[in-house]
Design the sequence.
């Protein structure tokens, strides 16, 4: 346990767990606690968090709208790399944690706090993400992780603690919660309880942000997304801020059942975890970004990006957003996006987001080179013969050797 703490900044959602943590910090460390609640577009009313913090005696309550910062400085840079962890996960929770931790550090420095605290459990990835960010930004700040320190071991004990300390317990929290939810502007994730056994089909009520594709509209919806330097800047010809654009894509994708994923992932701490993720806007954005890159990126650049993407995704998943290797990869990725501009047309229908057209003033696509009709003569079919011979030389040499050896 961390000793001699004079002031703590707590990452506070206003929910049951962090309200109990707030009371526990007050009792255990007997010092002032400042609460920080990030508005990440989680679609929840945040003023109740303020009211609950006031009820628990907090004087310094910070509720900060970070939606634009979240999308502009974290989500968009990640999407420039077409980032997907283990082939499926669009890193909705992973990318939010360094932003929250950044503000915890900023506030701690501002108010002279010597510690920050979070509500992440000892089994999950979030504890790592929070604490690695603090290490990178200000290693002098101590970290208090109650789930690794207190003796509360179950939901029942958590509720008993709340009742002893007159902390309101929502009716749906009495007894075992069916699953836990984390939400922000990029995604909604559901884990635990009814989802713990990967052999069980997730019940329909798990889904918060998307309709069942079966119940989605029968008529497809066609949208156009504009890009500049790899970032989405407009929807259907209308310029939008990053957060506003992603919000609108979430609405469109949710309506058409886009972005549902049921997966088992490998956590950084060493265990496998089953979760259901809904990322409607992000799924559309990923498809559209790949669409515009397909005509504006050189083959070598595109393939190199695809090679480094898994490493980049792993760094974000594991909490190394502020590590030098992630920043080095980001510089490479951002350099590749210089000419990634134009418009992509996407069809939304029954759970799918399909690119159906793309155009750019910076396009590398040459009608003259690919046409089956008479071209300008810039491509000579006879050149292909020498090209194939040179590339096939080593294969012919191998085949002759193997025949000689009887293989």
Sequence:
């Amino acid at each position: 346990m961390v000793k001699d703490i004079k002031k703590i900044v707590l990452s506070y959602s206003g929910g049951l767990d962090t309200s109990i943590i707030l009371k526990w910090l007050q009792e255990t460390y007997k010092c002032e606690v400042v609460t920080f609640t990030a508005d990440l577009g989680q679609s929840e009313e945040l003023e109740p968090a303020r009211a609950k913090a006031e009820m628990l005696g907090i004087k310094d309550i910070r509720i900060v709208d970070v939606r634009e910062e979240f999308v502009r400085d974290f989500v968009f840079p990640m999407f420039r790399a077409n980032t997907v962890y283990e082939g499926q996960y669009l890193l909705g929770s992973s990318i939010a944690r360094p932003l929250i931790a950044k503000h915890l550090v900023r506030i701690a420095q501002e108010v002279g706090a010597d510690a920050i605290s979070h509500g992440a459990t000892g089994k999950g990835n979030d504890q790592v993400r929070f604490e690695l960010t603090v290490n990178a930004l200000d290693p002098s700040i101590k970290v208090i992780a109650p789930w690794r320190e207190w003796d509360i071991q179950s939901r029942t004990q958590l509720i008993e603690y709340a009742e002893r300390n007159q902390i309101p317990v929502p009716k749906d929290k009495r007894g075992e919660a069916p699953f836990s939810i984390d939400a922000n502007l990029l995604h909604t994730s559901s884990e635990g309880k009814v989802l713990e056994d990967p052999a069980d089909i997730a019940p329909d009520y798990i889904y918060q942000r998307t309709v069942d594709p079966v119940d989605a509209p029968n008529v497809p919806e066609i949208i156009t997304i504009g890009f500049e330097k790899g970032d989405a800047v407009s929807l259907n010809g209308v310029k939008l801020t990053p957060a506003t654009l992603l919000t609108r894509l979430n609405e469109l994708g949710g309506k058409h059942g886009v972005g549902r994923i049921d997966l088992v992932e490998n956590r950084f701490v060493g265990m496998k975890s089953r979760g259901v993720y809904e990322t409607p806007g992000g799924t559309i954005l990923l498809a559209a970004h790949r669409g515009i890159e397909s005509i504006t990126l050189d083959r070598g650049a595109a393939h190199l990006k695809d090679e480094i993407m898994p490493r980049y995704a792993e760094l974000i998943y594991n909490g190394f957003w502020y590590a030098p290797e992630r920043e080095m990869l980001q510089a490479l990725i951002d350099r590749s996006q210089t000419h990634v501009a134009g418009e992509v047309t996407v069809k939304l229908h029954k759970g799918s987001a399909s690119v159906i057209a793309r155009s750019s003033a910076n396009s590398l696509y040459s009608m003259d080179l690919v046409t089956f009709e008479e071209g300008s003569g810039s491509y000579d079919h006879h050149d292909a013969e020498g090209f194939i011979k040179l590339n096939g030389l080593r294969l012919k040499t191998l085949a002759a050797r193997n025949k000689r050896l009887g293989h």
About this structure: DSSP finds twelve helices and 14 strands in the chain. The first helix runs from residue 16 to 29. The CA atoms of residues 190 and 206 lie 7 Å apart. The chain has a mean pLDDT of 93.
